[in-house]
Amino acid sequence: MPAERLLPTTEAEDLLALVREIARDELAPHAAEAEEHERFPRDKFRLLGKTGLLGLPYPERFGGGEQPYEVYLQALEEVASAWMSVGVGLSVHIMSSYALATFGTEEQKARWLPDALAGDQLGGYALSESHAGSDAGALSTRAVRDGDHYTVNGTKAWITHAGVADFYTLMARTSDDGGKGISCFFAPGHVDGLTAAKPERKMGLTGSITAQLAFDDVRVDADRLIGAEGDGLKIALSALDSGRLGIAACGVGLAQAALDEAVAYAKQRTQFGRAIIDFQGLEFLLADMAAAVESARATYLQAARRRDRGLPFHRQAAIAKLICTDTAMKVTTDAVQVLGGAGYTRDFPVERYMREAKVLQIFEGTNQIQRLVIGRDLRR
Protein backbone atom coordinates (compact mmCIF):
# COMPACT_ATOMS: atom_id res chain seq x y z
CA MET A 1 0.00 0.00 0.00
CA PRO A 2 1.70 3.23 -1.08
CA ALA A 3 2.53 5.78 1.58
CA GLU A 4 0.01 8.59 1.85
CA ARG A 5 1.68 11.91 1.11
CA LEU A 6 0.78 15.55 1.48
CA LEU A 7 2.79 17.23 -1.27
CA PRO A 8 3.13 21.00 -1.70
CA THR A 9 2.22 21.28 -5.42
CA THR A 10 0.48 19.42 -8.21
CA GLU A 11 3.88 19.31 -9.95
CA ALA A 12 5.24 17.40 -6.97
CA GLU A 13 2.28 15.02 -7.07
CA ASP A 14 2.96 14.28 -10.75
CA LEU A 15 6.65 13.78 -10.00
CA LEU A 16 5.97 11.29 -7.20
CA ALA A 17 3.52 9.42 -9.43
CA LEU A 18 6.28 9.07 -12.04
CA VAL A 19 8.81 7.94 -9.42
CA ARG A 20 6.38 5.32 -8.12
CA GLU A 21 5.88 4.02 -11.64
CA ILE A 22 9.63 3.73 -12.20
CA ALA A 23 10.12 2.11 -8.79
CA ARG A 24 7.34 -0.41 -9.40
CA ASP A 25 8.14 -1.31 -13.01
CA GLU A 26 11.90 -0.76 -13.40
CA LEU A 27 13.45 -1.24 -9.97
CA ALA A 28 11.50 -3.60 -7.71
CA PRO A 29 11.29 -6.53 -10.18
CA HIS A 30 15.10 -6.67 -10.50
CA ALA A 31 16.23 -5.99 -6.93
CA ALA A 32 16.29 -9.48 -5.41
CA GLU A 33 18.25 -11.12 -8.23
CA ALA A 34 20.80 -8.31 -8.52
CA GLU A 35 21.37 -8.30 -4.76
CA GLU A 36 21.73 -12.09 -4.67
CA HIS A 37 24.37 -12.00 -7.40
CA GLU A 38 26.00 -8.78 -6.11
CA ARG A 39 25.52 -6.94 -9.41
CA PHE A 40 25.91 -3.17 -9.46
CA PRO A 41 22.90 -1.71 -11.34
CA ARG A 42 24.67 1.02 -13.31
CA ASP A 43 21.90 0.97 -15.92
CA LYS A 44 19.31 1.91 -13.29
CA PHE A 45 21.23 5.05 -12.40
CA ARG A 46 21.30 6.02 -16.08
CA LEU A 47 17.54 5.56 -16.10
CA LEU A 48 17.17 7.79 -13.04
CA GLY A 49 19.40 10.33 -14.73
CA LYS A 50 17.29 10.40 -17.89
CA THR A 51 14.19 11.08 -15.80
CA GLY A 52 15.92 13.90 -13.92
CA LEU A 53 16.16 12.24 -10.50
CA LEU A 54 19.95 12.53 -10.19
CA GLY A 55 19.68 16.31 -10.01
CA LEU A 56 16.33 16.72 -8.32
CA PRO A 57 17.16 19.34 -5.62
CA TYR A 58 19.60 21.40 -7.71
CA PRO A 59 18.95 24.51 -9.87
CA GLU A 60 17.26 24.18 -13.25
CA ARG A 61 19.83 26.42 -14.90
CA PHE A 62 22.42 23.67 -14.35
CA GLY A 63 20.10 20.87 -15.41
CA GLY A 64 18.57 20.10 -12.01
CA GLY A 65 14.94 19.73 -11.03
CA GLU A 66 14.97 22.61 -8.53
CA GLN A 67 12.69 20.71 -6.17
CA PRO A 68 12.59 21.42 -2.43
CA TYR A 69 14.11 18.82 -0.15
CA GLU A 70 10.61 18.04 1.12
CA VAL A 71 9.83 16.68 -2.36
CA TYR A 72 13.23 15.23 -3.25
CA LEU A 73 13.37 13.15 -0.07
CA GLN A 74 9.93 11.66 -0.66
CA ALA A 75 10.98 10.69 -4.19
CA LEU A 76 14.12 9.15 -2.72
CA GLU A 77 12.01 7.24 -0.20
CA GLU A 78 9.99 5.69 -3.03
CA VAL A 79 13.19 4.58 -4.80
CA ALA A 80 14.63 3.09 -1.61
CA SER A 81 11.37 1.28 -0.90
CA ALA A 82 11.71 -0.53 -4.24
CA TRP A 83 15.47 -1.14 -4.19
CA MET A 84 17.65 -0.02 -1.30
CA SER A 85 21.00 -0.12 -3.12
CA VAL A 86 19.65 2.26 -5.76
CA GLY A 87 18.14 4.53 -3.12
CA VAL A 88 21.40 4.78 -1.21
CA GLY A 89 23.29 5.33 -4.47
CA LEU A 90 20.93 8.16 -5.41
CA SER A 91 21.43 9.77 -1.99
CA VAL A 92 25.22 9.45 -2.30
CA HIS A 93 25.20 10.99 -5.77
CA ILE A 94 23.13 13.95 -4.58
CA MET A 95 25.50 14.46 -1.63
CA SER A 96 28.53 14.11 -3.90
CA SER A 97 27.21 16.96 -6.06
CA TYR A 98 26.49 19.16 -3.03
CA ALA A 99 29.93 20.75 -2.53
CA LEU A 100 30.18 21.90 -6.13
CA ALA A 101 26.55 23.08 -6.25
CA THR A 102 26.73 24.95 -2.92
CA PHE A 103 30.31 26.15 -2.51
CA GLY A 104 31.64 26.16 -6.08
CA THR A 105 32.20 29.35 -8.04
CA GLU A 106 29.82 30.21 -10.86
CA GLU A 107 32.54 29.21 -13.32
CA GLN A 108 33.05 25.84 -11.63
CA LYS A 109 29.32 25.12 -11.50
CA ALA A 110 28.81 26.07 -15.15
CA ARG A 111 31.72 23.85 -16.17
CA TRP A 112 31.02 20.64 -14.23
CA LEU A 113 27.59 20.66 -12.61
CA PRO A 114 25.44 20.11 -15.75
CA ASP A 115 27.30 16.88 -16.55
CA ALA A 116 27.07 15.76 -12.93
CA LEU A 117 23.30 16.20 -12.97
CA ALA A 118 22.53 15.04 -16.50
CA GLY A 119 22.47 11.34 -15.69
CA ASP A 120 25.43 9.82 -17.53
CA GLN A 121 27.76 10.51 -14.61
CA LEU A 122 27.67 9.05 -11.11
CA GLY A 123 29.30 10.60 -8.05
CA GLY A 124 31.15 9.34 -4.98
CA TYR A 125 31.92 10.99 -1.64
CA ALA A 126 35.53 10.43 -0.57
CA LEU A 127 35.82 11.51 3.06
CA SER A 128 36.27 8.47 5.32
CA GLU A 129 39.55 6.65 5.91
CA SER A 130 40.30 3.49 7.85
CA HIS A 131 41.45 5.51 10.89
CA ALA A 132 39.26 8.57 10.25
CA GLY A 133 35.59 7.66 10.22
CA SER A 134 33.66 9.41 12.96
CA ASP A 135 36.75 11.59 13.52
CA ALA A 136 36.82 13.07 10.02
CA GLY A 137 39.33 15.73 11.06
CA ALA A 138 41.97 13.02 11.50
CA LEU A 139 42.17 12.10 7.82
CA SER A 140 45.65 11.79 6.32
CA THR A 141 45.18 11.69 2.53
CA ARG A 142 47.32 14.59 1.38
CA ALA A 143 47.10 17.00 -1.54
CA VAL A 144 50.30 18.97 -2.28
CA ARG A 145 50.20 22.01 -4.55
CA ASP A 146 52.54 21.75 -7.53
CA GLY A 147 52.04 24.64 -9.93
CA ASP A 148 48.68 24.41 -11.63
CA HIS A 149 47.70 21.11 -9.99
CA TYR A 150 47.71 19.18 -6.71
CA THR A 151 49.33 15.78 -6.26
CA VAL A 152 47.17 13.52 -4.10
CA ASN A 153 48.37 10.51 -2.12
CA GLY A 154 46.48 8.38 0.39
CA THR A 155 43.72 5.83 0.78
CA LYS A 156 40.02 6.39 1.39
CA ALA A 157 37.85 3.70 2.95
CA TRP A 158 34.17 2.67 2.78
CA ILE A 159 33.58 4.66 -0.39
CA THR A 160 30.25 4.04 -2.11
CA HIS A 161 30.70 3.76 -5.90
CA ALA A 162 34.48 3.39 -5.53
CA GLY A 163 35.91 2.53 -8.92
CA VAL A 164 32.69 3.18 -10.84
CA ALA A 165 32.09 6.85 -9.98
CA ASP A 166 32.82 9.44 -12.63
CA PHE A 167 33.70 12.08 -10.04
CA TYR A 168 34.41 12.26 -6.32
CA THR A 169 33.97 14.99 -3.78
CA LEU A 170 37.39 14.47 -2.23
CA MET A 171 38.54 15.70 1.16
CA ALA A 172 42.32 15.83 1.46
CA ARG A 173 44.83 17.42 3.79
CA THR A 174 46.63 20.50 2.44
CA SER A 175 48.27 21.48 5.74
CA ASP A 176 48.97 19.97 9.17
CA ASP A 177 46.57 22.33 10.94
CA GLY A 178 44.17 19.60 12.15
CA GLY A 179 40.60 20.05 10.93
CA LYS A 180 41.53 23.46 9.50
CA GLY A 181 44.05 21.83 7.19
CA ILE A 182 41.53 19.90 5.10
CA SER A 183 40.44 21.02 1.63
CA CYS A 184 37.73 19.94 -0.77
CA PHE A 185 38.21 18.96 -4.42
CA PHE A 186 35.83 18.02 -7.22
CA ALA A 187 38.06 15.20 -8.42
CA PRO A 188 37.75 13.20 -11.66
CA GLY A 189 36.85 9.56 -11.21
CA HIS A 190 38.98 8.03 -13.97
CA VAL A 191 42.56 9.25 -13.90
CA ASP A 192 46.06 7.76 -13.72
CA GLY A 193 47.04 6.64 -10.24
CA LEU A 194 43.49 6.27 -8.91
CA THR A 195 42.49 2.67 -8.19
CA ALA A 196 39.77 0.91 -6.26
CA ALA A 197 40.34 -2.19 -4.16
CA LYS A 198 38.19 -5.31 -4.31
CA PRO A 199 34.68 -4.46 -3.09
CA GLU A 200 33.90 -5.16 0.56
CA ARG A 201 31.98 -8.37 1.30
CA LYS A 202 28.99 -6.86 3.09
CA MET A 203 26.04 -8.16 5.06
CA GLY A 204 23.58 -6.22 2.91
CA LEU A 205 23.41 -3.68 0.10
CA THR A 206 25.33 -6.21 -1.95
CA GLY A 207 24.28 -4.52 -5.18
CA SER A 208 26.04 -1.35 -4.07
CA ILE A 209 29.82 -1.17 -4.48
CA THR A 210 31.77 -0.17 -1.37
CA ALA A 211 35.57 -0.26 -1.48
CA GLN A 212 38.82 1.44 -0.60
CA LEU A 213 40.03 4.11 -3.01
CA ALA A 214 43.79 4.57 -3.41
CA PHE A 215 45.41 7.78 -4.66
CA ASP A 216 48.98 7.27 -5.89
CA ASP A 217 50.43 10.55 -7.18
CA VAL A 218 47.06 11.47 -8.66
CA ARG A 219 47.08 14.86 -10.38
CA VAL A 220 44.05 17.04 -9.67
CA ASP A 221 43.91 20.39 -11.43
CA ALA A 222 44.10 23.34 -9.04
CA ASP A 223 40.90 24.81 -10.46
CA ARG A 224 39.06 21.80 -9.01
CA LEU A 225 39.59 23.12 -5.48
CA ILE A 226 36.17 23.96 -4.02
CA GLY A 227 36.25 26.98 -1.75
CA ALA A 228 39.60 27.97 -0.25
CA GLU A 229 42.29 25.73 1.17
CA GLY A 230 41.20 24.75 4.68
CA ASP A 231 37.45 24.92 3.94
CA GLY A 232 37.12 21.17 3.42
CA LEU A 233 35.90 20.04 6.82
CA LYS A 234 33.30 22.81 6.94
CA ILE A 235 32.07 21.79 3.50
CA ALA A 236 32.08 18.09 4.43
CA LEU A 237 30.03 18.61 7.58
CA SER A 238 27.55 20.80 5.73
CA ALA A 239 27.13 18.11 3.08
CA LEU A 240 26.60 15.49 5.76
CA ASP A 241 23.68 17.41 7.26
CA SER A 242 21.84 17.11 3.95
CA GLY A 243 23.17 13.61 3.31
CA ARG A 244 21.81 12.42 6.63
CA LEU A 245 18.35 13.48 5.53
CA GLY A 246 18.82 11.32 2.45
CA ILE A 247 19.70 8.29 4.56
CA ALA A 248 16.75 9.04 6.85
CA ALA A 249 14.42 8.95 3.84
CA CYS A 250 16.01 5.70 2.65
CA GLY A 251 15.42 4.21 6.09
CA VAL A 252 11.74 5.11 6.00
CA GLY A 253 11.42 3.69 2.49
CA LEU A 254 12.92 0.39 3.64
CA ALA A 255 10.67 0.30 6.71
CA GLN A 256 7.61 1.01 4.54
CA ALA A 257 8.54 -1.87 2.22
CA ALA A 258 8.90 -4.21 5.21
CA LEU A 259 5.58 -3.08 6.66
CA ASP A 260 3.81 -3.59 3.33
CA GLU A 261 5.22 -7.09 2.99
CA ALA A 262 4.28 -7.99 6.56
CA VAL A 263 0.69 -6.74 6.20
CA ALA A 264 0.21 -8.55 2.89
CA TYR A 265 1.52 -11.80 4.36
CA ALA A 266 -0.57 -11.47 7.53
CA LYS A 267 -3.72 -11.04 5.46
CA GLN A 268 -3.23 -14.21 3.44
CA ARG A 269 -1.55 -16.51 5.99
CA THR A 270 -4.08 -18.54 8.00
CA GLN A 271 -3.76 -20.41 11.29
CA PHE A 272 -6.53 -22.00 13.34
CA GLY A 273 -8.93 -21.14 10.51
CA ARG A 274 -8.28 -17.40 10.60
CA ALA A 275 -5.98 -14.91 8.86
CA ILE A 276 -3.16 -14.21 11.30
CA ILE A 277 -3.79 -10.46 11.04
CA ASP A 278 -7.02 -11.13 12.98
CA PHE A 279 -5.04 -12.18 16.07
CA GLN A 280 -4.68 -9.21 18.38
CA GLY A 281 -1.06 -9.94 19.29
CA LEU A 282 -0.02 -9.70 15.66
CA GLU A 283 -2.42 -6.86 14.91
CA PHE A 284 -0.83 -4.76 17.65
CA LEU A 285 2.67 -5.54 16.34
CA LEU A 286 1.68 -4.35 12.87
CA ALA A 287 0.04 -1.26 14.37
CA ASP A 288 3.26 -0.38 16.19
CA MET A 289 5.22 -0.84 12.95
CA ALA A 290 2.84 1.48 11.08
CA ALA A 291 3.02 4.10 13.82
CA ALA A 292 6.81 3.96 13.77
CA VAL A 293 7.01 4.39 9.99
CA GLU A 294 4.65 7.37 9.89
CA SER A 295 6.36 9.03 12.87
CA ALA A 296 9.78 8.60 11.28
CA ARG A 297 8.54 10.07 8.00
CA ALA A 298 7.20 13.12 9.85
CA THR A 299 10.60 13.53 11.52
CA TYR A 300 12.61 13.74 8.30
CA LEU A 301 10.00 15.93 6.63
CA GLN A 302 10.14 18.41 9.51
CA ALA A 303 13.92 18.67 9.10
CA ALA A 304 13.55 19.01 5.32
CA ARG A 305 11.04 21.82 5.64
CA ARG A 306 13.41 23.71 7.93
CA ARG A 307 16.16 23.27 5.34
CA ASP A 308 13.86 24.49 2.55
CA ARG A 309 13.03 27.62 4.53
CA GLY A 310 16.67 28.44 5.25
CA LEU A 311 16.36 27.65 8.96
CA PRO A 312 19.07 25.83 10.95
CA PHE A 313 18.53 22.08 10.66
CA HIS A 314 21.80 20.57 11.94
CA ARG A 315 20.21 19.08 15.06
CA GLN A 316 17.02 18.12 13.23
CA ALA A 317 19.02 16.27 10.56
CA ALA A 318 20.80 14.26 13.25
CA ILE A 319 17.49 13.50 14.97
CA ALA A 320 15.94 12.40 11.65
CA LYS A 321 18.88 10.15 10.80
CA LEU A 322 18.79 8.60 14.28
CA ILE A 323 15.03 8.06 14.45
CA CYS A 324 14.51 6.91 10.87
CA THR A 325 17.36 4.41 10.77
CA ASP A 326 16.56 2.96 14.20
CA THR A 327 12.98 2.63 12.95
CA ALA A 328 14.18 0.80 9.84
CA MET A 329 16.09 -1.70 11.97
CA LYS A 330 13.15 -2.30 14.31
CA VAL A 331 10.45 -2.53 11.64
CA THR A 332 12.42 -4.85 9.35
CA THR A 333 13.21 -7.13 12.30
CA ASP A 334 9.53 -7.18 13.28
CA ALA A 335 8.58 -7.97 9.68
CA VAL A 336 10.74 -11.09 9.81
CA GLN A 337 8.91 -12.04 13.01
CA VAL A 338 5.51 -11.58 11.35
CA LEU A 339 6.48 -13.96 8.56
CA GLY A 340 7.91 -16.46 11.04
CA GLY A 341 10.03 -19.20 9.47
CA ALA A 342 9.22 -17.90 6.00
CA GLY A 343 10.70 -14.55 6.94
CA TYR A 344 14.05 -16.17 7.69
CA THR A 345 14.33 -17.55 4.16
CA ARG A 346 15.38 -15.86 0.96
CA ASP A 347 12.06 -16.75 -0.62
CA PHE A 348 10.71 -13.53 0.92
CA PRO A 349 12.41 -10.13 0.85
CA VAL A 350 12.14 -9.25 4.54
CA GLU A 351 15.36 -11.05 5.52
CA ARG A 352 17.18 -8.89 2.95
CA TYR A 353 15.46 -5.79 4.28
CA MET A 354 16.70 -6.60 7.78
CA ARG A 355 20.27 -7.06 6.55
CA GLU A 356 20.10 -3.81 4.60
CA ALA A 357 18.71 -1.85 7.55
CA LYS A 358 21.72 -2.43 9.79
CA VAL A 359 24.17 -0.31 7.82
CA LEU A 360 21.81 2.66 7.98
CA GLN A 361 22.64 2.94 11.68
CA ILE A 362 26.35 3.09 10.79
CA PHE A 363 27.10 5.24 7.74
CA GLU A 364 26.73 9.02 7.33
CA GLY A 365 27.74 9.13 11.01
CA THR A 366 26.86 6.29 13.38
CA ASN A 367 23.78 6.75 15.50
CA GLN A 368 26.03 7.20 18.51
CA ILE A 369 27.58 10.18 16.70
CA GLN A 370 24.07 11.52 15.99
CA ARG A 371 23.38 11.48 19.72
CA LEU A 372 26.64 13.35 20.26
CA VAL A 373 25.64 15.95 17.64
CA ILE A 374 22.22 16.40 19.25
CA GLY A 375 23.65 16.68 22.75
CA ARG A 376 26.29 19.23 21.75
CA ASP A 377 23.69 21.32 19.97
CA LEU A 378 21.51 21.32 23.11
CA ARG A 379 24.47 22.52 25.22
CA ARG A 380 24.99 25.62 23.04
TrEMBL record:
Organism: Saccharothrix hoggarensis
Residue stretches making up the Acyl-CoA dehydrogenase/oxidase C-terminal domain: 230-377
Pfam family, one: Acyl-CoA_dh_M
Record's protein name: Acyl-CoA dehydrogenase family protein
Acyl-CoA oxidase/dehydrogenase middle domain boundaries: 125-218
Cofactors demanded by this protein: FAD
Superkingdom classification of source: Bacteria
Family matches, as InterPro entries: Acyl-CoA_DH_CS (IPR006089), Acyl-CoA_Oxase/DH_mid-dom (IPR006091), Acyl-CoA_Oxase/DH_mid-dom_sf (IPR046373), AcylCo_DH-like_C (IPR036250), AcylCo_DH/oxidase_C (IPR009075), AcylCoA_DH/ox_N (IPR013786), AcylCoA_DH/ox_N_sf (IPR037069), AcylCoA_DH/oxidase_NM_dom_sf (IPR009100)
